[in-house]
Write a structure and sequence with these properties.
alpha+beta, 6 helices, Structural Genomics Hypothetical 15.5 Kd Protein In mrcA-pckA Intergenic Region, Chain A, 5-stranded antiparallel β-sheet, elongated, 43% helix, 12% strand
């Protein structure tokens, strides 16, 4: 779902296991904070794959600096925006028009006119509407 291979997913699980709190929730929060997923959630892309490509092709700025690493972890207060030259891209504009139907999570504040979004808070498990049973993931990787 998040577009990564087994090895990278295992690394995320190890980091989530070392953090305080529930491992499954920590894992999902870390996956939601990936830059490619954040770009998708903000509405700049219509899919996670498209968001990943936008990031890899340097269309995305984080706090005014180019970031082309899809696994970059966005934090509270980070401003994710689209590069000035890329704002005429039809795919980005179509995705922004469709974001009203899909909705933006409450942990993100979207400024459509400025092609920017601010991460207001860390995502909560309650906000993730995807049918993921994180306990099964924890049981599988804890072996």
């Amino acid at each position: 779902m998040y577009g990564m291979l087994e090895g990278q997913f295992r690394q995320y699980f190890k980091k989530a296991d070392l953090q305080k709190g529930v491992t499954g929730e920590n894992l999902l929060i870390m996956l939601e904070r990936r830059l490619d997923n954040a770009v998708f959630r903000m509405g700049f892309a219509s899919s996670r794959n498209q968001a990943r490509q936008l990031v890899r092709h340097k269309h995305v700025l984080v706090n005014g600096k180019k970031v082309n690493i899809p696994s970059y972890q966005v934090g509270v207060g980070d401003v994710v925006s689209i590069k000035e030259k890329s704002r005429a891209n039809t795919l980005i504009n179509e995705s922004l028009d469709a974001v009203e139907r899909r909705g933006v999570p409450s942990w993100i504040e979207l400024d459509k006119k400025g092609y920017a979004s601010t991460v207001k808070a860390l995502p909560n498990r309650e906000e993730l509407t995807m049918p993921i049973q994180e306990q099964l993931i924890v049981e599988l990787y804890s072996k």
